Amino acid sequence: MLYLESPAGVGFSYSDDHNYATNDTEVALVNFLALKEFLRLFPEFSSNQLFLTGESYGGIYIPTLAERVMEDSTLNLQGVAVGNGMSSYEMNDNSLVFFAYYHGLLGDRLWTQLQNACCSDSCNFYNNPNPNCTDSLADVQDIIYSSGLNMYNLYAPCPGGVAQRLSVERQTLVIRDLGNSFIQHPSSRLWKQKLQSLLFQRRSVRLDPPCTNSTPSSLFLNDPYVRKALHVRAAALDWVICSSEVNLKYGRLFLDVRKQYLKLLSALKYRVLVYNGDVDMACNFMGDEWFVESLQQQVEVQRRPWLYDDVDGRQVGGFVKEFDNISFLTVKGSGHMVPSDKPVAAFTMFSRFIKGQPF
After folding, report:
1. Which residue among 24, 177, 208, 280 is the active-site one?
2. Which of 147, 190, 291, 297 lies in disulfide reach of 323, CB 3.0 to 4.6 Å?
3. What 3-state DSSP class applies to 235?
4. Which PROSITE patterns would you find in this protein's record (predicted)?
């Protein structure tokens, strides 16, 4: 198992020139070169079967890396798996509004306003120019991101309690918005302008994902004895859960990765798994299901429950639909971090995927 901290500046990774500005294309190349260098240094692993996996923004990282890896015949690529991934900004935004309404978050009054302002033949919650639509969507964003709900797991409590989207703590500007949703909306552009203005005024900035307790991991990983045991170089920055420097300078070039998936699938030899915890609102299951359906692959097995065994006996793990060389799978009751929320179900899912067994 090889864990790759990327882009540079994330985790304990660092840049010798302290330049942490990068983008999707550059990250894919650097990740590919890092993988090649690892196998050069450890050639005993070069013939092993290779699976590329990631979650969240890994929905961009993994397909763009796979596109490069599949063109190198020295790498024994077998498949890719992406969990709760950002596969399409448009589908993620559009589906999130439906997700929020049908999970009881919006109410009939706001839903009716959205239907009237944003929907004609179909609903466009992504880049709708109607000002009435954008006003209603601003209310949706407030409910999802600013009301105290845990966007990573709707039914989980919010560690640390309800916090502001932006605050100042001990002279540090704390941002609790990773900027991955509704990026085409006027309110998002105004928010980004406000953020840039505040960043110009302050040197110290911290990026904290909402409803996430990173204190235990931060204390552990920044302990000098732990850093020494992990052979972390002195040049590495302190470990933080999210790097504000990387995030705020990052260039998002791919708004969807349909081209990369179709290229993988056209080879007819790679296994592809897209899986989602079904109560995540950061990258919701419906958006990724729509994305997989949009690839228009031949259906092999219609949507059905998949099962696993735990201490209480056989359980429903979620639902799965299988196509030629790609499967879409949900994990029941899990949020954004499937292995953390549902470890037994996740282990079963990964084991079947890697071994090529039916879900």
Report:
1. 280
2. 297
3. coil
4. CARBOXYPEPT_SER_HIS, CARBOXYPEPT_SER_SER
- Give the helix ranges, DSSP H, for the chain: 24-41, 58-69, 89-102, 108-118, 131-146, 186-201, 215-221, 224-229, 244-249, 258-266, 285-294, 338-341, 343-355
- 3-state SS, one letter per residue, for 273-291: EEEEECCCCCCCHHHHHHH
pLDDT, one tens digit per residue, over 11-68 is 999 888 888 999 999 999 999 999 999 999 999 999 999 999 999 999 999 999 999 9
Do residues 49 and 78 make contact, with C-beta atoms less than 8 angstroms apart? yes
Whether the ω angle into residue 224 lies within 30 degrees of 0, i.e. cis, is no
- Please report how many Cα atoms fall inside a 13 Å half-sphere around the Cα of residue 141, on the Cβ side: 22
C-beta of residue 329 within 8 angstroms of C-beta of residue 305? no
Q: Does the reported pTM lie above 0.70?
A: yes
Q: Is domain 49-60+78-88+256-355 given the CATH code 3.40.50.12670 in the classification? A: yes
Delimiting residues of CATH 3.40.50.12670 domain(s) in the chain: 49-60+78-88+256-355
- Residue found under tokens 């219609």: 302
Phi (first) and psi of residue 219, to 5 degrees: -65, -45
Question: Would residue 280 show up in a list of annotated catalytic residues for this protein?
Answer: yes
Residue in 59, 58, 68 with CA at minimum distance from that of residue 34 = 68
Distance (Å, rounded) from C-alpha 310 to C-alpha 319? Answer: 17
3-state helix, strand, coil in the chain (%, to 5): 40, 20, 40
Q: What are residue 329's phi and psi, to 5 degrees?
A: -140, 135
HSE-CB of 157 using CA atoms within 13 angstroms: 4
Based on the residue annotation, tell me whether 56 is a catalytic residue of this protein. yes
Active site residue 103: no
Region 90-212: CATH code = 3.40.50.1820
